[in-house]
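Colleagues,

For the teaching module next term, I've prepared a clean inverse folding example: a structure given as tokens, and then the sequence designed for it. I'd like students to try predicting residues themselves before seeing the answer, so please don't circulate the second half yet.
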């Protein structure tokens, strides 16, 4: 799941299964909310949770200021008409609003 979270932060939009998107949505929203505090402790917690200093920097410097006036709901899950061939899982796109 950590890799999905890192990829979502890196690309700001990824295509994955519906179950995985619903699983990572609260995690990423908590990270953005944590980054909105703009403290050293928040930055260190982001680095600890993401295990990637560059992605923590992006959340802290780019994503959190973008949603400074928003109280929540930073992500959108859009269903697509595609299904995976091997197991017929429904694919969705999860992206920042």
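(Answer key — instructors only)
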């Amino acid at each position: 799941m950590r890799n999905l979270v890192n990829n979502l932060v890196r690309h700001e939009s990824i295509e994955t299964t519906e179950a995985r998107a619903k699983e990572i949505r609260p995690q990423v929203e908590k990270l953005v909310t944590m980054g909105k505090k703009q403290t050293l402790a928040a930055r260190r917690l982001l680095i600890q949770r993401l295990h990637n200093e560059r992605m923590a920097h992006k959340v802290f410097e780019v994503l959190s200021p973008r949603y400074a006036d928003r109280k929540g709901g930073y992500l959108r899950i859009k269903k697509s008409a595609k299904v995976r061939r091997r197991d017929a899982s429904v694919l969705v796109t999860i992206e920042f609003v």
